[in-house]
């Protein structure tokens, strides 16, 4: 199931740096086989789809947040349920909200450039990120904690950042009608799992920037 849960929306309100897996952290494993493409096709409406990210410095200080644009994507629906999908994110579109940069000597555009550099996402070499759905299942709120209020489904998919692909699983709210599909989610990923280690050297208490990234997305797809 290649579900293109917009963004899935590629990076959430990070938690402060520190050890231990947080309940809101997406479950991460090796890449899995993409879900079979069955059912009616829906195209991602890139103008109505948003992906938000949030990250912090040491101890949760100086949070930064911004957006990334979804370039394209499709979903497939059968019997009122998403069966597969995938979407691509334009990493060159990554921007930082100026409201999150309050220091007088810093600019949001400087952070944009740094995040796009080889220290982080190296967008000159890896201009796109990709998410491919591998499974969609009902979500049982009694068996887990979610940053997404009212989550209805548990979505798994292969997330490719730079040259690494890992499978992530997170709760999402999904609504399917005859004409469109909407989905939203919010979760945390550990950037170091994809080989992005900048300022996470040594013991966690010495990290300058949190390894966690919070990603949120709101997606809309319309029937072809």
TrEMBL record:
<feature type="domain" description="Lipid/polyisoprenoid-binding YceI-like">
    <location>
        <begin position="41"/>
        <end position="222"/>
    </location>
</feature>
<dbReference type="InterPro" id="IPR036761">
    <property type="entry name" value="TTHA0802/YceI-like_sf"/>
</dbReference>
<protein>
    <submittedName>
        <fullName>YceI family protein</fullName>
    </submittedName>
</protein>
<dbReference type="Pfam" id="PF04264">
    <property type="entry name" value="YceI"/>
</dbReference>
<dbReference type="InterPro" id="IPR007372">
    <property type="entry name" value="Lipid/polyisoprenoid-bd_YceI"/>
</dbReference>
<feature type="signal peptide">
    <location>
        <begin position="1"/>
        <end position="18"/>
    </location>
</feature>
<keyword id="KW-0732">Signal</keyword>
